[in-house]
Design goal:
Strand content: under 5%
Mean pLDDT: 89
Oligomer: single chain
Number of strands: 4
Order of helices and strands: HHHHHEEHHEHHHHEHHHHHH
Radius of gyration: 22 Å
Largest sheet: 2 strands, antiparallel
Low-confidence stretches: none
Helix content: over 70%
Structural class: mainly alpha
């Protein structure tokens, strides 16, 4: 009976997810037509959104690995910074593939420092992570000045001229989808634009990022290794009594976490941009952490959060994006009103009222203005990140032992 109930619940969740996704597509298409902001879903916009989402996704997946084993990894930002330098240095001297590997190794080193501090020495996870972020920024500045200053195309804080990963375009699908997208039809053109954006000039590193998301879901939820690792984040004492080497699994998780964050840094220096600059992450490690929290510590949720934050980030990077951000106000207001209704039906009256008031504020802003100040557009991804986390916080469930100290033999 229990198995049947679980299967029925899984099917319900799957159907609900499909319905919500379809409703979201229809809503976006309707807002595009009403506002006349066709650039909301052009292939170029959605491709930019995918590029902006991938480093956030890699950081979020890195945080997921660590926290599922019970280690809070606030140091994702510092590990990404190390990855940006590693990608530039190794790509410049040994090619783009070495750059990807070098970035992962640099991030892994950052993860190792965090693991030694938190797992072996029991340092508070937040303190260790914040320290790692500070150290990462300082180390990258020192390494850049030491190794890039004398290189052709380099300087004390930057480097360019190194090879980047190749790109792929699927000719038949890409051209056909782009043609349909240019018609600006309801829903059809929006879906076609997404297909065109995902099949045109697709970087090898983008494909690797999406593959790692699938690999994470399989490894953590479909293997005995993943079950043991997640048990370390739920109840390490019980896992120890069952013969699980908790320290080993925590170390593996944090090392993988650092490597993923390092790859996020590689993406920034080799795909998002073809050059390296000190401090290039601009808080994306923190946004990756936010996508993990928004996704309720699940790979599919992390992917959804990263795409959402990436879309906002991508729009903020587009030229002449004022009308797009203005149209985004209406889109956000519609989604918030729908969420308010959902919370009202669930009996959460206070949350429903608060969200509805914010939605009405966005509507008033939209209808009383014709554009959004350019200074606000750069803040868009960070404002949306903060708001989404505050709204979604009531339904979250972190691993039970996440961030809690553990000592070998404490099971008694």
């Amino acid at each position: 009976m229990t198995g049947t109930t679980a299967l029925s619940r899984a099917r319900t969740v799957r159907y609900t997810t499909i319905v919500v996704a379809l409703a979201a597509i229809v809503t976006v298409s309707a807002v595009r037509i009403v506002t006349g902001a066709d650039r909301l879903t052009t292939p170029g916009t959605l491709r930019q959104a995918l590029i902006a989402a991938c480093p956030i996704l890699l950081a979020g997946l890195g945080g997921l690995w660590a926290e599922r084993a019970g280690i809070v990894n606030i140091g994702l930002e510092g590990q990404m910074l190390l990855g940006t330098w590693g990608a530039a240095f190794f790509a410049y001297h040994h090619g783009w593939l070495a750059g990807i590997v070098g970035a992962a190794v640099m991030g892994l080193i950052g993860g190792l420092v965090h693991a030694i501090a938190t797992v072996s020495f029991g340092v508070d996870h937040i303190i260790s992570g914040v320290a790692l972020n500070i150290i990462g920024l300082g180390a990258v500045g020192f390494l850049a000045k030491s190794y890039f200053d004398e290189l052709s195309g380099g300087g004390p804080r930057n480097l360019s001229g190194y090879p980047t990963p190749p790109t792929l375009t699927i000719p038949g699908i890409s051209d056909g989808a782009r043609s349909l997208a240019d018609q600006h039809w309801f829903v059809v053109s929006d879906v076609s634009a997404a297909v065109a954006g995902a099949t045109t000039n697709l970087s090898i590193l983008t494909i690797l990022t999406l593959a790692l998301a699938l690999l994470t879901a399989w490894a953590l939820w479909r293997t005995s290794f993943g079950l043991r690792l997640r048990s370390c984040g739920e109840n390490p004492q019980a896992a120890e009594t069952l013969g699980v080497n908790v320290y080993l699994y925590k170390y593996v998780a944090v090392l993988v976490s650092g490597a993923f964050a390092g790859l996020g840094g590689a993406y920034l220096t080799m795909v998002s941009s073809s050059s390296f600059t000190v401090g290039q992450t601009n808080g994306r490690g923190y946004i990756g952490l936010a996508s993990m929290i928004f996704g309720n510590w699940r790979p599919s949720g992390v992917l959804t959060g990263a795409l959402m934050f990436g879309y906002a980030d991508g729009i903020s990077l587009l030229p002449k994006n004022g009308p797009l951000v203005h149209a985004l106000l209406l889109l956000v207001a519609v989604f918030l009103l729908a969420y308010s209704v959902f919370k009202f039906r669930a009996g959460e009256l206070t949350t429903a009222i608060v969200v509805a008031v914010i939605a009405l504020g966005a509507l008033v802003w939209y209808f009383t203005t014709t554009r959004v100040p350019s200074a606000f557009t750069g803040m868009t991804p960070y404002v949306i990140t903060l708001f989404v986390i505050s709204v979604a916080s009531q339904r979250l469930r972190m691993p039970a032992a996440d961030g809690k100290p553990y000592r070998r033999g404490s099971a008694g």
